[in-house]
Amino acid sequence: MLENYLPIFIFFGLAFGLSIALITVSWVRSKNRPNVEKLSPYECGFETFDLPHQNTRGRFDVRFYVVAILFIIFDLELAFLFPWAITLKKIGVFGFWSMISFLLILTIGFLYEWRKGALEWE
Questions:
Q1: How far apart are CA 59 and CA 44, in angstroms?
Q2: Which of 36, 60, 30 is nearest to 48 (CA)?
Q3: C-beta separation of 102 from 87 below 8 A
Q4: Backbone φ, ψ for residue 17 (5° rounding)
Q5: What is the tens place of the pLDDT at every residue in 30-77?
């Protein structure tokens, strides 16, 4: 019975060994040459935390999380729209109205966020 699973165990062993080997080779061969440009704040605008006395667990503004959640919500909406548009002829009227109700719920949520000021960045 276990001989049926032998190829799977071999595959997992090879994958694990190869991943450890590749990580080790990249760590050994990499060059660590920091400069001012690499250590400068990039997108988030915070200074880098490289001194041991600096607290790396500083508080982030909640607006970063709100923007991330809103992006995920509307990104998922688009992920549902593409297959729906492709299979619209096959799913018929029920599929059409199901997606319309889904979009209506998302639109109501978007309008609610807009009225509450979640999209405003002061």
A1: 13
A2: 36
A3: no
A4: -65, -45
A5: 887 777 777 676 666 666 555 555 555 566 677 778 778 888 888 888
Contact 41, 47 (CB under 8 A): yes
Let me know: does 105 contact 111? Beta carbons within 8 Å: no
Q: How many CA atoms lie within 13 A of 92 on its CB side?
A: 1
Using only the alpha carbons of the chain, give its radius of gyration: 25
pLDDT mean across residues, the chain: 82
The pLDDT score that the predictor gives to residue 43 is 60
What's the maximum distance between 2 C-alpha atoms anywhere in the chain? 64
Q: What is the DSSP letter of 119?
A: T
Q: What angle do CA 55, 59, 64 make, to 5 degrees?
A: 135
45 or 87: whose pLDDT is higher?
87
